[in-house]
Amino acid sequence: MSEQLPATVTVFASATSWIESDAVAQCHQVAALDGMLHVAAMPDLHPGKGAPIGAAMTASLVYPFLVGSDIGCGIAVFPVQLKRAVPEKLAARFPDLDRALHPERDADDPAWDVLKGDIPAGHVDGLGTVGRGNHFVELARIGTVFEPGHASRLGLEAGDLVLVVHSGSRGLGERILRAHTEVHGAGPAPDPAGYLAMHDEAVRWGSLNRRLLAARVARALGAEPAEPIVDQCHNLVEVRDGTYLHRKGAAPGDGLDVLIAGTRGTPSYLVAGHAGPDAGHSVAHGAGRKMSRADALRRGRAKHTVEELRRTPMGSLVVCGDRRLLFEEAPTAYKRIEQVIADLVDHDLATPIATTIPLVTYKTADLGSTPRRDRRRKPARG
Fold first, then answer.
1. Across the chain, what does the average pLDDT equal?
2. pLDDT tens for residues 151-208?
3. Residue 3: what pLDDT?
4. What does this protein's record comment on cofactor binding (predicted)?
5. Is the pTM of the predicted complex or chain greater than 0.85?
């Protein structure tokens, strides 16, 4: 009986793009797994814990560790109507998104209006919270519009305001992964249908939570919550043509619109994906790290002050009470988003629709960093 040959690996990045050799090596390690058919690496590729981040991996088996613990993580974009958008005033009005909403204790919170039906998996822990790491809720404005017709179909034009929400399943996905790895380690799921049933609940939970987050922020800013114009999950398994497409930090790119996140100090890009099977029907999900968190912390402390990181060169504000996280998530810790987008365009995987320009980015509550003039009195809603 002949041994299975490793799966094919394709890296969708130019020779000038920042792609770590360790990340490419992880792609080839994944390609050697039983049942693996193809690995497509996106231009935001970087090393992960045991598996690459920024990759779409197709196999005849389900490997839960390839998706990881944050099943259902994704990015949603919500239109928001405000009379004025002064970052200093709006930053002071962001709610505490580290405080979870509880269905009983907070039953009167109007954010629950976005809930249609049950809470997936009955998982109430962390509802309405954003999480840590690279997760965020951002008030942004539409900047450059590359495709006016497409933007118009989404109800967008230059200058419009949107909420961008990046968050996942807040502990539910980790619970699902741990239940598998404690018995089977990094091996495939012996009962794919059973794993996928739990996985699908985590994906639903993540989408619901992004709606709750957007509703909490919209109401705090004096606006009515709206339905998302984009909501794509980039950590999941998709059953496709009799195979299992594992996406880890790779967004669905087959005829769907996707928000590809930049950094706190750079634009993000709303794109129309048109990726084919060679790319795992996927596009990048963000700029992609070029420094580990430890390196970003060490270099950032030597180069920046906390106040420099709380107000970006673009004039936007960052709400973050965790100083360590500020350095770990500094814009310099990431690749150039412009290069990531250029690689997607050059490989015919996506077409840019518009940019979003950050105004206020929420990472974690920081009541003490609000500018002094804004703490004297609470501004009127408007």
1. 93
2. 999 999 999 999 999 999 999 999 999 999 999 999 999 999 999 999 999 999 999 9
3. 66
4. Binds 2 manganese ions per subunit.
5. yes
Contacts of 229 (CB under 8 A, 6+ apart): 77, 78, 79, 154, 155, 156, 162, 257
| Residue type for position 113 | D
| Local confidence band at 378 (pLDDT 50, 70, 90 cut-offs) | very low
Of 221, 269, 230, 223, which Cα lies nearest the Cα of 252? 230
Q: Confirm if 247 and 234 have CB atoms less than 8 A apart.
A: yes
Cα Rg of the chain (Å, integer) = 20
87-116 pLDDT, tens digit each: 999 999 999 999 999 999 999 999 999 998
Whether residue 314 contacts residue 265, with contact meaning beta carbons closer than 8 Å, is answered with yes
Residue numbers annotated as active site: 285
Burial 287-322 (b: 16+ CB within 10 A, else e): bbbbbebeebbeebeeeeeeeebbebeeebbbbbee
d(CA 269, CA 286): 9
Q: Could you tell me which residues come within 8 angstroms of residue 209 by beta carbon, excluding any fewer than 6 positions away?
A: 126, 127, 128, 129, 167, 168, 169, 170
Which of these, 227, 264, 219, lies nearest to 95 by C-alpha position? 219
When pLDDT is averaged across residues 34-41 and rounded to a whole number, the result is 98
* Sequence-ordered list of residues with C-beta below 8 angstroms from that of 272, at least 6 positions apart, any chain: 147, 150, 256, 257, 350, 351, 353
Residue 110 is given by DSSP the state G
Instruction: Walk me through the domains of the chain, giving residue ranges and CATH numbers.
Output: 8-375 (3.90.1860.10)
Give Cα 200 distance to the centre of its chain.
18
Res 365: pLDDT: 81
- Counts of helices then strands in the chain (DSSP H, E): 11, 15
Specify the DSSP class assigned to residue 99: S
Q: Which residues on adjacent β-strands are paired with residue 317?
A: 311, 360
Q: Is 136 helix (H, G, I), strand (E, B) or coil?
A: strand
Task: Name the strand (E) or helix (H) holding 246.
Answer: strand 243-248
- Inter-residue contact 258 to 76 (CB < 8 Å): no
What confidence score (pLDDT) does residue 53 get?
98
**Which DSSP state fits 331?**
G
DSSP 261: B
Strand partners, 16: none
